Amino acid sequence: METYRFISSRFSNTIAHFFKRNTMQTSYTDLKEIQLQGRRQDLRTRTKEFLNITGGIAHTYFREVISPMDREVLVKDRQTGKVSKMLMFASNNYLGFANHPYIREKVKKSIDDYGCGVGGPPLLNGYHKLIREAEERLAAWKKQEDAIIFSSGFTTNLGIITGLSHSGDLIVFDELSHASFYDGIKYSHARSLSFTHNRMDEFQRLLEEHPARKGQTVFASVEGVYSMDGDCAPLRKFASTCRQYGAVSVVDDAHGSGVLGETGSGTAEAFGCTADIDIHMGTFSKAFAVSGGFAAAPRDIVNYLRYYARPYFFSASFPPSTAAAVIAALDLLETEPWRRKQLLVNVAYTSSLIEHLGLYAPAEAGFLTLKVPHGMNMRKAAMEFHRRNIFLNAIEYPAVPFDKQRFRISLMATHTREDIRQLATAIEEIWANEAMFRL
What we know:
- With about 450 residues, the protein is α/β, with parallel strands linked by helices.
- It has 3 domains: about 1-55; about 65-90 and about 335-435, Aspartate Aminotransferase, domain 1, CATH 3.90.1150; about 100-335, Aspartate Aminotransferase, domain 2.
- It has 17 helices and 14 strands.
- The chain has helices spanning about 10-20, 30-40, 45-55, 100-115, 120-125, 130-140, 155-165, 180-190, 200-210, 235-245, 265-270, 300-310, 310-315, 320-335, 340-355, 380-385, 415-430; strands at about 65, 70-75, 85-90, 145-150, 170-175, 190-195, 220-225, 250, 280-285, 295, 365-370, 390, 395, 405-410.
- The strands form 3 sheets. It has a 7-stranded mixed β-sheet with strand order 4-10-9-8-7-5-6.
- Helix 10 links the parallel strand 7 and strand 8.
- Helix 6 runs parallel beside helix 14, helix 7 (about 155-165) runs parallel beside helix 8 and helix 9 runs parallel beside helix 10.
């Protein structure tokens, strides 16, 4: 314990030394860990010191967008008040639905007809007719009997795991699963075993070595498209292995829903195994460009979740206007299939221009992950992209391992080839002048 009981001067020296070596490279969560390890503090002292530590760091977080989300956005500098037009390559608005006139019109009409909110949870007064219509449409889209809508994608994963599993169950999952899934496991109190990313041989061995006992359920989970690398899970092998060993299969398809498959239904449709997946999870914060999440599954499972998923049971329903946006987006997936096709064309074109610089995964979905050269100061590079009016997401530790930090490039169906060439030119020039952006 003495290791963590630094005196104040030693803690200050530790922080100073850390910044000397890692200026603008450190994430805020990482700084919090350094602060907490340095000494135990009450909340007011901790928050004030944290503000002092981070206040002077140049960064590209919390940039203020003052226009609709589109391929181009207006961004306001909070210090100078200057407004800049930037090319947006950081939004998961894959299909351009965030500012689509058809969706905007449907949302406006829903507000005129039903107001701005419901003021209650689904069980009581919050189960609006538009929510039910959206659930029915989602269930049909995913070829399932029913669907349940949650207030966010995060609470959807939390609700599925905590609502369906108990302390006697076993959860087997890919090590690169989302933070919401990890939190669901923690709160479920079920046993859990992870397997190396996309290693189906290891996954099968775990199911073989840990069969379900009497009164126990084995849940198995992967992501359709992994949010940090952009690669797909081998869903056909996953689904067949779950069937072989009697495991309940769960697929988090946040980044695949609306993007992959003949109708945009998602990764399972693209792999031809929709009917072999027990529970399909998706979000509305990606291709649908609003907020919320859903699970599509057999009716008995959905009905059970309505009563046992605490994030659903104890949360207010989202407003009818969001349900209207979801329904309108499902309409457009049918009437404007060119958007999905153009998105994947744009992803492939972007990949062809920058893949020689190092990508973490092949171009398979709506985004690419660009490797950061060893020793590059990510925050300096991110600020340079910002200066060039290229809006990118810098994915830092601890969201990913420190040696696997990357830029995530999200494409839209509405991006032009000139937009993409500007992005590629900026990357090429920053990488060519890497010495300017060293730690």
